Amino acid sequence: MKLWSVTRKPSCLRMIESFFQHNDLVSAKEMLSNIIICAGKNNTVIQEDSSVVLSFHQALRSLVRACYTISVKENKWRIAKHPGKHYLLEQGSLSNEEYLNPVLVFHRAFAEYAVKDFEYYLAVIVSLSMNTNSYSDGGEMVAVYIHLVKILDAAYLIQEREKNK
Predict the structure, then answer these.
(1) Number of domains forming the structure of the chain
(2) CA-derived radius of gyration, the chain
(3) Cα–Cα distances in Å, from 115 out to 21, 80, 156?
(4) Which of 3, 114, 152, 162 is the 20 to 30 Å CA partner of 70?
(5) What is the distance between the alpha carbons of residues 44 and 86, in angstroms, rounded to a whole number?
(6) Can you give the residue range of the structural domain that contains 103?
């Protein structure tokens, strides 16, 4: 009698799947954009309910951790490769090279910032988006934001390819 399934997806892929079951890609990018915009403006507070923002923050932190694990343990798992058809809308913010191999996005993001850095900047922008203060170092926040958007696009692409495998 088997107590586990050999075909069970690795936990990181399940985490990505779970994230996108609760957040569609467009809404997640929109929420992230609203958070970064409100965090950068003085006297501006995000309109979404704080529980929604904090829940999104927790989900995005978990997604970032899952993507980091995938980047570190890429060789252990078989992530579905590019199916052959190239849809420009599906590519999102990814370069052609990143579209063909979305794990490159994770390698590049975590080469520039550690997971702790992403968690720190996420906590800062979420905190600032919910009060009237703004941040002073916009350049660093924008760089993290760009990586997060690419991580969302790459994770979604991986999830879609796994679904169609």
Answers:
(1) 1
(2) 17
(3) 23, 24, 19
(4) 3
(5) 40
(6) 11-75+87-163
Residue listed under structure tokens 């936990």: 11
Rounded distance, CA 158 to CA 165, Å? 10
Tens of each residue's pLDDT in the chain, 165 residues: 333 444 455 688 899 999 999 999 999 999 999 999 888 887 888 888 999 999 999 999 999 999 999 999 866 555 656 566 666 667 788 988 888 889 999 999 999 999 999 999 999 999 988 887 777 666 788 899 999 999 999 999 999 888 876
Q: Cβ neighbours of residue 148 under 8 Å, at least 6 residues apart?
A: 32, 60, 64, 118, 122
Q: Within a domain: residue 2?
A: no
Question: Residue 4: inside a domain, yes or no?
Answer: no
Give the pair of three-digit tokens for residue 86. Answer: 């190239």
Token representation of residue 28 = 């997640």
